[in-house]
Amino acid sequence: MNAPEEDLDIKLQKVSADLITDFDKSLLQFLRKKRQQQNDDDIISTAQHKQHQEQQPVVRSRVRARETDRLVSLLDPFQELPQLLDPQLPKWLPILADAFLEYQQQSRRRAAREVSSSSSSSSSSTRSDLLMPLPAAIAKILYTICKIRGEKVVVRFLRNETRYLELLLSALEDSERNPSWTWEERYVVLLWLSHLMLAPFDLATISSVEVDSDELPLIPGFRWPTAAAARLPGITVRILPLAIKYLASPGKERDAARALLVRVAMRRDMQQLGVLDALVQWALIALRPRWDVAEQTPYHYIGVLSFLSGILVSSSDTSDMDRHLTTLFYTIHRATAEADPAGSMMSSALARKMMIKVIRAITILTLRNSGSTSQDQASSMELVETTIGFLLENLADNDTPVRFAASKALSIVTLKLDADMASQVVEAVIESLNRNVLWVRMNPRGDGGDAASGLPTRTKDLSAVNPLEWHGLMLTLSHLLYRRSPPAENLSDIIHTLLMGLSFERRNTSGGSSGTNVRDAACFGIWALARRYTTAELRAVPTTSTTAAVAAAVKSHNPGASMLQIIATELVVEASLDPAGNIRRGSSAALQELIGRHPDTVEKGIWVVQAVDYHSVALRSRALQEVALGVTRLAGQYGEAVLDALLGWRGIGDADAAARRAAGVSYGAVTAELAGDGRDPVERLAGSVQLVLACVGHLEARQVEERHGLLLSLAAVLDGFPAVAVAATAACADGEGAVAARALDRFVSLTVIALTTILTDCDSRAYRRPELIAEAASRLVVSSAPLLQAAVLSAAGPSSSSSSSWTAIAAALQTGPATISQGGAALSALVDNLGPAAAPQQVRDIVAVVKNSLNTKWLLRSEQEVISAASDAGVVMLVFSDRTSREETMRSWADTVRRKPVGRAAGAVAANGGGYFAALAKAYLVVGSFGREEVKMELDGDGGVVGRVLGARGGWIRGLLDECEGDVGSHVRLQAVRAAKWLWEAFGRQQGQNQQEMKVKGVEEEEDRARQSQLQVVVVEALFLRVLRLAAEKLDRVRVEAQGALGVLLRPSQAAELKKLTFSSKPYFSSLLNLLSRADDWLDPAISAAVAANPDRWMDELMAGLVSSADTGNEDLVIATRAALCDFCCEEEQQQQQQQQQKSGQSNAEAICAALVRNARRCVGQDRVLVPTLEVIAFLFHVGVFARCVRGVDYKNLVLLVQKAGYKTGNVRKIEACIKVYGAVADLEGKGIGGGDGDSQRVMEGVEDARKRLGALMSHPWPRVRGLVVDELWGLGLSSGGGGGGGDVDDGEDVEEVKNIKGQELLGVDWGKAGKGAVKGLIGVFGLDG
């Protein structure tokens, strides 16, 4: 799990000023408008009219819904940093509140005028989806601000005058009679009313309406106070039914209704009238439904419980609720045990959470008010014990919010208890954590521990515990530490539990992780521990009494470490390796708190905090490789702990293959760092190898993922062998050189034996996921190249154990991946270094096993990771093979690729033969290192494999670039572009080597290099135009990859310029269009000469890709592409026109139009290219580009091509594109197109044919097609005169009158259902019959 490279809060800080300015400028215009000059109802006289004009703008009645959404979108980003809005809230919120109130006042005045005038008609305006009422828009904005900043902050800026109370209440009542309000409006008004309930006056003095006792509304389960019914204020009588109704709402109205009901109930005047007692009794009845009453929804119980929680919290400093505590407690507790009557309540996690909050509040009030008598104390203790038992049970709830609430409640209750009872709660939590914990033999390094040395011989196995319960218990422990409830004497067991929780991991049945919550809670606990306890108290905790601490000390090779150092080391491991990003960052925060609060207690503390930075651990790959390596350089104990953890579930046991690859690289890098800093680097490297081999030996056959990670880790360790060999031989004095040589000999011998065993096992055994084993074993073969080289050289030397021989061997060693990446020169040096000497038998055995695995398994895989690794392994195998075996192997690979398989084998080789192609390609680049010319000619001769696969005649990659369509085809095109880019880069490296080698080689070598360069030009030419087309196509992922591939063939400065351009921008497409004219300056000379020789083909391929972006891409892409196309066609600078005329004899517009016509002829049957081409042709007609290309385009021939494209097609979109082109050509009549009589004649012939085709399509059997033709007739101006239909009009008649007459023929008729007679008449009127 990776966090984003750049956090959203950083981006928000950069753009916050622009967002706030935009919202501020738009707000007033959004809410208000200028008052109209005249209004018959309001303006009576001229004096009143002047006074009216001087008033401020009035509020709008409706606003655009789109503008509302835009304003909301300006506010939404501030959820990351809500405090950025604080300076603006005192300005914005009063403006919004005043507009809301003014609208309500105007609405009431309008309603009063309508009643006084006995007007019974309602508003004639209708609601539109494009408009929304102003109160709804204001409420939506206010809710957004509440969501960002919190409702308690927002209500402080709302108007609190009591005169608005009845106004808002009446508006809410009106919305009940006419349900047109949105939920945001109800939420804001209820919240506003709850704020107005803080008025210091009695509600009786505010109410304007009194309600008689016989007019009290009926509320189910609620009994109005009998004695005070006649004296209840009208506001109270009106508010209670509304608040109780919305208390059962499933939306946000419930929260506002709860706040309103609590404010009403807790008012002193309402308590005196008995409203509080009546509401409590109603809540008790609501929580105990009768069998004869329909069961309520869970939201009803959630609302009731939230109301009870609210009044209990509000009365925490008073005795208002003391008389109801016992009744409330046992009613709610009984509801948790009785499944039937409260089934819907217990089925809701939110309801259970609210029950916990109510019980917590009751228990705290009970502990505060515990009486002095023994009976009261016994009753209080019984209630507290029942609460603690109830909370401990809910710590294992299936829902996370319930566990959060239970843990927090238990810690708060424990804080109120006396010391003895609080320590009992802590012991109960720790005892629950030790439940179902199994003890197994500790075997971290392949042994059974050492009891005599004091090291532990057993460790805890947490596979049988409940991860949900552990999460709740760990949260409770963390909350207790945060409130410093446990005494310092109990910290030993607590720290032991936190360290176990920090490394807790469980997999569910689907393979997902279920231990993340536990580790998160443990991080919180360690953070609280470091914050609440002193350094002396933590130093006093003995490490020997904590099994987890002793195990951690063993891992870090520091048995004498303090408890603070052990905790810091575990946090470093967690921050570097944990799969979850929030855990890595949480561990980093806890580590910073630990080191900051307790200075000089952790080794290299300040530097460790800087290395394990909050932002550095966001990306897991960076945390695994850079952060882990950084802390290892600070102190070896951190590296030792990281190595041990990498061999567990956080490294090689991770479910993600990419994470295992990164873990393997990290294991090798950390091992190399520790070996470089140690006194005996060879022994340290051998220890890591033996540790990995021991883990491999303990694996079951089903543990394929772990085997994959371990083999990758072993490969990464072997990559460090060359540096360790150099360090070992350089660090030893003359007297100790023999010791280092013997250590290196022993390491090489033992490792080669282990490699033989591992590779033989991979070759002979069938595993569950063979692609993982193939990749890991191939990587291991590549990384073992320096080891095999050392084995060959040491066996061929005169004295393998002498320091001088190992000094020469170490200087010649190079890591396997580095040798492969450097290509032919490095491999040639490696072959020369090996010499003609025969390899030892162990090396020959490894080569034989690898050869068999490559031919039977690895090269047949289709996964990209396996192909890359297996092809590299094939090169290493060829290097260490003898000459005869090399020829035989390469001929067999060539025969496999050349042969066209039949039957079942055809699909297998066709789908899974990519490894052979990759191996041959890499072998071709270094084939000169392998000897005989015959094999070389077999590969790159005129009929050779590479020539057939990659050259102009084979066309393999070229075919993939051309023919693959659809979503799956896009992935194929993407990989083909990457393959072409890889070839071009490889050819570039080979060309550079050729230039250097030609200076010292003979004439024959020069001719050979020249022939290879000629083949490379052919390959590049065959692929360049295809990649150019894909660089302009509509799919972003293909376009961006092709952009990078084109950069390989450009000169460095131009490649950098192209790379800076956004791949969906207008400048990017303009650069592609102008690339032909700049080929000499931008492209390599050899490539530009070969490709630019045929400019028509260049333009055809480019337009074949560009039309897809200009027609079927997203809106922004279409706009950018068409804008670039128009600019390119409309260039009128004299210098550019002269250059273009001299070069191709065509202008830009003529070149584009001619290419589109050629593609329309060439791509018949390829709708993916043909339909966008027709659409772009029609577009260029409409913008006036095609109409100017009389010399380069035959319009009669164009109409014929379009007719062939649409012949007997069922593609409606293609027919629509054809109609657009017909209409565009027909619209050329009378526009003076053509430079002479011959040109004009050709234009008129095309116009006549286009009219005939439109007339023919009016008889098409599909109504939609006929409708499209009618739309084209109306929009393109065919009714402007001319044609057969205009012959009965005299020259002096008004053209506009003719348009109106012909336009009327199109109106009033459903042409999709019109008969043949009407269609024939229309054809005659418009002259479409020729």
TrEMBL record:
InterPro entries: ARM-type_fold (IPR016024), ARM_TBCD_2nd (IPR058033), TBCD (IPR033162), TBCD_C (IPR022577)
Keywords assigned: Chaperone
Keyword Chaperone appears in the UniProt entry: yes
GO MF annotations, alphabetized: beta-tubulin binding; GTPase activator activity
SUPFAM superfamilies named in the record: ARM repeat
Protein name, UniProt field: Tubulin folding cofactor D C terminal-domain-containing protein
Residue ranges annotated for the Tubulin-folding cofactor D C-terminal domain, each copy included: 1024-1214
Organism expressing this protein natively: Bombardia bombarda
Highest taxon, organism lineage: Eukaryota
GO terms, biological process: microtubule cytoskeleton organization; post-chaperonin tubulin folding pathway; tubulin complex assembly
Domain Tubulin-folding cofactor D ARM repeats: 371-435, 469-551
